[in-house]
Write a structure and sequence with these properties.
The complex is a heterodimer.
Chain A (H helix, E strand, L loop, with lengths): L1 H14 L1 H25 L4 H12 L2 H12 L2 H19 L1 H29 L11 E4 L24 H10 L3 E8 L3 E6 L6 E8 L3 H5 L5 E2 L14 E4 L1 H8 L9 E4 L2 E8 L16 E4 L3 H5 L13 E7 L5 H17 L2 H4 L14 E3 L6 H38 L1 H9 L4 H38 L14 H27 L3 H6 L7 H36 L10 E5 L12 H13 L4 E7 L10 E3 L15 E7 L3 H5 L3 E4 L13 E5 H7 L9 E2 L10 E7 L14 E5 L10 H9 L5 E6 L3 H15 L7 E4 H6 L3 H35 L1 H9 L4 H33 L12 H27 L3 H7 L1
Parallel strand pairs in A: 4-9, 6-8, 15-20, 17-19
Antiparallel strand pairs in A: 1-10, 1-11, 2-10, 3-4, 3-7, 5-8, 6-9, 7-8, 12-21, 12-22, 13-21, 14-15, 16-19, 17-20, 18-19
Helix pairs in contact in A: 1-2, 2-3, 2-4, 5-15, 6-13, 6-15, 6-16, 7-11, 13-16, 13-18, 13-25, 15-16, 18-25, 18-27, 18-28, 19-23, 25-28, 26-29, 27-28
Chain B lengths: L3 E2 H11 L11 H11 L2 E7 L5 E7 L1 H28 L2
Antiparallel strand pairs in B: 1-3, 2-3
Classes of the chains: A alpha+beta, B alpha+beta.
Chain lengths: 925, 90
């Protein structure tokens, strides 16, 4: 109790220090007066009494200091004093202060910007209640988004069919709630009243989705299980952002009817502004749709009641106190048993895989973390790169502080000579550097905000309203503050130590002769470190840029000149399977009539538009492939002119033509990779294969071989691929999943065009042609094939550009640092240089002398940096495409760039040194 | 003994200790600060008989309680030390 009271009164005395000090003064002088009075009374003269009183009292100033020490919180008092002193010092040299603050602002700002991203993407929980009790059944995301669930060789199961979900939900009471959500996000055609249809991202979710996350509606209501039943009238919940952006927050939207895929649905409510869905993505869903509406909206393509069609991720809220391990066991056993009750899982070679099936439960407080898994390496790479920049900036500032320390040598010496404690001096200088760090951090926040916005715009170029916010959160502010403190100490401690260890006697004897040799070695090593780190950054920038270049300018196997791709959605426009053949024909006719159009090809998907379709390939007469054998091939279903339109040459046999009709024999064109994979050393032309196991043995005859082209993964070789005509359709299939798959493959999403003319003209003509076919069609997008092929490298491009930017920033800082120290040293050596010149050294010798000094530091930096750069390159090897982590060219370029910069930084002071007039130099000093 | 100012306290200490304890007068202040911060004494400005201003320190209620406690503690401690000296060194 008494200690508490004492602490409180110490705080009080800290804040009303002046008053307390005045009172102390008053008390002491009263005390002195009383003693003096006594002495007077004992017969001394006034003068004697005055002096005797002071003697009797002792040291007045010491008494005051003891009083202060006793009454106050010492360190706080000292801190305030040091800070005031530091501010005074900085005011005296505003140029220095501004330089340091700006340098630190860039260093800290860059780091804070990257940390904002790391925090927003990797460290954020969903904005839902009690995110800790959310668990996902499953741990991987690479089996997105429509499979049979048995993709992983080790039996790791993490994507589920609707039936499977229903079963698990009913048999796992350990989950208070278990919700299902679509693994990928689909685009829907959305129309209100008579307005034109728009394409919006949407997501199918179970009825208990909102209650599982504990999310209510912002307006209206959210849907529940009652809305997620067969026969329930279709409803949707709209995101707040869509409501604001597309409907201006119009309250009449709630309860209104929208046409979704041309089907009427009711908007029951709007989700809260903070709720961006179950995952961080560049384009969060505009609409959430109950699973039960899927058959209505997908029509013949519906997969809701296909027990092997896995397309849902499951996240549930676990009951308190449930042990995860046993639950995981239980669900795994349960799942295996269920799979064995499903006819679909008892064929297709699945039974051999089922014994290994198991699930892994993972915390899902952050929701579906596909984006996190795809970007975490890149983010950490950016974080390391920005940390390097900060180190370079710190070294630069440390050098400035050292140089300043040399200037302040006399002052420091005087203070040491007068008895200042060295620790006090160090503390004072550290206060100064931490203050600079904090001011830099404050300015850095502005840099960070602008930087984050820029990075987000570059990383997710077509994002509408992203779930990732650039506004710094509390944690980001905390990070920036800590970073400022730490950097303040890092760049301050060495200069403080060096400066405070000046020998007072030597410094006072003669300033000009003590040329700061002691400060010079630390200064030089700072430059070496800067050069080393700059080299690492430049090498990294070189490697990443080269890799990006390789990716962007690789040969995709396609002629891209004058090629364009239109995306559209016949399903969204309300087309049933039986109307597709007529639609395809009408589209071909209308598009071919556009002036300037050379070729029009329709396709299930186009190269690198994000879609793909994998089927198993079965060759008659060969043993049936086992469960772990790879018989995958990519299927694309196309119209006759597709190969010409997309610029993929058919190199053997023939492509498709008008003679390949619904009634003619089934034909296929395969690519070279397919031929090599399935018919090595054989002629594939004339061979047969099927894709529906025993139901269509040898149905297709290979009539042509197309050149390899990359349709999916740009980093890998072209995959085995086969093409089938849109006009042919297997109508005899029995297995319901086969019937479903065959139907799905006949829906086109892309029209590829070879067109001579401008993109604007094409756009106008395409819209008109599309409206002629059916006014319900929405243009999802129209872009050049080149853009589509290169468009998905935005993240790689961002990293390469940021690394280059950071590398150049580091180079600039290093050059400035080198220039500064060379200029300083040259200045110190004016007299020596003057002497040398007087004794006959010519200008070139002087330039050489100074340059040698500069280059020694850079050379040490290179010697340090080359091994670090090589180690760093090894770490980022997985991010590189067709670039070996040991790339002599990048290394060479970085060394040359650094050396040239160093030469320029050294040459300026060297030339100045060479122009010294020897007489003047000698006379001056 | 009522409220006292610092000089009186110092003088009194000198008298009682028969000049054995001759404090530097300024060193008294830290002790007074500490006692005041504990809330055991309270200082108020007043006038001396010779009409000079001085800060008078008076003991508070909490101070009296603490004084009792500290006195007891001191007596116990002093008695203990005394007994130790008597028993072990004679």
């Amino acid at each position: 109790m008494r200690y508490l009271r004492r602490l409180l009164s110490k705080w009080r005395s800290f804040f009303r220090n002046d008053q307390v000090e005045a009172e102390l003064e008053r008390e002491i002088s009263a005390h002195l007066a009383l003693i003096e009075e006594d002495f007077l009374r004992s017969g001394m003269t006034a003068d004697e009494a005055h002096r005797a009183a002071r003697r009797a009292y002792g040291g007045v100033e010491q008494a005051k200091q003891m009083h202060r020490d006793e009454r106050s919180i010492l360190w706080l008092e000292q801190l305030a004093r040091d800070t005031r002193y530091a501010i005074r010092q900085l005011r005296k040299s505003p140029g220095f202060a501004i330089t340091v603050i700006l340098t630190m602002a860039f260093g800290i700002g860059a780091n804070t910007a990257i940390f904002t991203l790391v925090h927003a993407i990797l460290m954020k929980s969903l904005p839902v209640s009690d995110a800790k009790s959310l668990y996902r059944i499953g741990d991987r995301y690479d089996d997105c988004c429509f499979t049979n669930g048995l993709e992983h060789e080790n039996g790791d199961f993490d994507i589920f069919s609707y039936e499977n979900y229903r079963h698990l939900r009913e048999s796992t009471p350990e989950f208070e709630q278990l919700a299902a959500m679509q693994a990928d996000q689909a685009l829907f055609s959305v129309r209100r009243g008579q307005s034109t249809a728009q394409t919006k991202p949407g997501e199918y979710v179970s009825g208990n989705y909102f209650s599982t996350f504990g999310v209510g509606a912002f307006a209206g209501r959210v849907f529940t299980d009652a809305n997620d039943r067969a026969g329930a009238s279709p409803v949707v919940v709209m995101s707040y952002q869509t409501w604001q952006a597309d409907y201006a927050g119009d309250p009449s939207v709630i309860g209104a009817t929208l046409y979704l895929q041309s089907q009427p649905v009711t908007v029951v409510g709007v989700a809260p502004p903070v709720f961006y869905g179950d995952r961080i993505s560049a384009n969060p869903p505009a609409l959430w749709i109950p699973l039960s509406s899927e058959p209505l909206l997908s029509q013949a393509n519906s997969i809701l009641h296909q027990p092997v069609a896995c397309w849902l991720y499951l996240i549930g809220r676990i009951r308190p106190g449930t042990a995860i391990g046993p639950l995981q066991q239980k669900i795994s056993t349960n799942l295996r048993q269920w799979l064995l009750t499903q006819d679909e899982y008892l064929s297709h070679g699945f039974p051999a895989l089922i014994p290994k099936v198991h699930v892994v439960l993972t915390p899902a407080g952050a929701g579906i973390q596909g984006l996190q898994q795809r970007t975490d390496k890149k983010l950490y790479l950016l974080l390391s790169i920005s940390a390097l920049v900060l180190l370079v900036a710190c070294a630069n500032v440390a050098n400035l502080m050292l140089a300043r320390g040399v200037k302040r040598k006399i002052e420091i010496s005087v203070r040491l000579a007068l008895g200042s404690a060295r620790s006090g001096l160090i503390r004072q200088m550290l206060t100064e550097s931490v203050l600079l760090g904090c001011l830099g951090g404050l300015a850095g926040l502005a840099v960070a905000y602008a930087g984050t916005r820029m990075i987000l715009a570059l990383a997710f170029p077509d994002s509408l309203h992203s779930a990732i916010d650039a506004t710094p959160s509390l944690s980001v502010l905390g990070f920036a503050f800590l970073l400022s403190l730490v950097t303040g100490i890092v760049f301050g401690i060495m200069p403080a130590w060096v400066t405070s260890h000046a020998d007072p006697a030597e410094a006072l004897r003669g300033v000009n002769r003590s040329t700061g040799e002691r400060a010079s070695l630390p200064q030089k090593s700072m430059i070496a470190f800067q050069a080393a780190f700059s080299l690492v950054l430049l090498v990294g920038a070189g490697l990443l840029t080269k890799s990006l270049n390789n990716m962007e300018h690789q040969d995709f196997g396609l002629q891209t000149a004058n090629r364009y791709v239109l995306h559209l959605d016949p399903l969204g426009a309300g087309y049933r399977p039986e109307r597709l053949a007529a639609l395809h024909q009408a589209l071909e006719v209308q598009f071919a009539a556009i002036p300037g159009m050379q070729n029009v090809g329709l396709a299930m998907y186009s190269p690198r538009d994000g879609n793909s379709w994998t089927d198993g390939v079965f060759i008659p007469g060969r043993p049936e492939p086992g469960p772990n054998d790879d018989n995958d091939g990519l299927l694309d279903r196309v119209s006759p002119n597709f190969f010409a339109a997309v610029g993929e040459p058919v190199i053997r046999g023939r492509g498709f033509n008008q003679g390949d009709t619904a009634d003619s024999p089934f034909v296929a064109v395969v690519n070279q990779a397919f031929a090599k994979k399935f018919f090595p050393n054989e002629d594939p032309i004339g061979r047969h294969f099927g894709i529906y196991e025993r139901e269509d043995i040898g149905a297709y005859e290979i009539v042509g071989v197309a050149a390899n082209a990359k349709y999916t993964e740009p980093r890998a070789e072209a995959k085995a691929m086969f093409f089938e005509p849109l006009s042919q359709w297997q109508h005899n299939l029995k297995d319901p999943i086969f019937v479903n798959l065959e139907t799905q493959t006949h829906y086109i999403t892309s029209i590829v065009m070879e067109f001579h003319g401008t993109q604007q003209n094409l756009e106008v003509a395409v819209r008109r042609a599309l409206a002629n076919v059916d006014p319900n069609f929405a243009v999802i997008n129209l872009r050049s094939l080149d853009f589509q092929l290169a468009g998905n490298f935005s993240q790689e491009r961002l990293i390469a550009r940021l690394t280059t930017l950071f590398g150049l920033l580091a180079l600039l800082l290093t050059s400035i640092g080198l220039y500064g120290i060379t200029a300083y040293q040259t200045n110190e050596r004016t007299r020596e240089i003057g002497l040398r010149m007087a004794f006959g050294a010519d200008r070139n010798r002087v330039v050489g002398l100074v340059m040698r000094g500069a280059f020694v530091q850079v050379a040490v930096g290179l010697a340090l940096g080359i091994p670090i750069a090589m180690a760093g390159a090894h770490v980022i090897a997985s991010q590189l495409y067709l670039v070996k982590s040991y790339d002599p060219l990048s290394l060479l370029v970085a060394v040359v760039v650094l050396s040239v910069a160093a030469a320029i930084a050294g040459l300026v002071p060297a030339r100045r040194a060479a122009s010294i007039d020897p007489m003047q130099a000698l006379r001056n000093q | 003994m009522g409220a006292q100012h610092a000089y009186q306290i110092a003088t009194r200490l000198q008298q009682v200790s028969e000049r054995l304890l001759n404090l530097n007068q300024g060193t008294l202040y830290p002790a007074l600060v500490r006692l005041e911060q504990y809330g055991w004494i309270k200082g108020t400005w007043g006038r001396t008989e010779s009409n000079r201003e001085a800060k008078y320190y008076a003991i508070t209620k909490a101070g009296e309680k603490a004084l009792n406690q500290e006195t007891m503690r001191w007596r116990r401690m002093a008695g203990l030390v005394e007994r130790l000296l008597v028993e072990d060194f004679q």
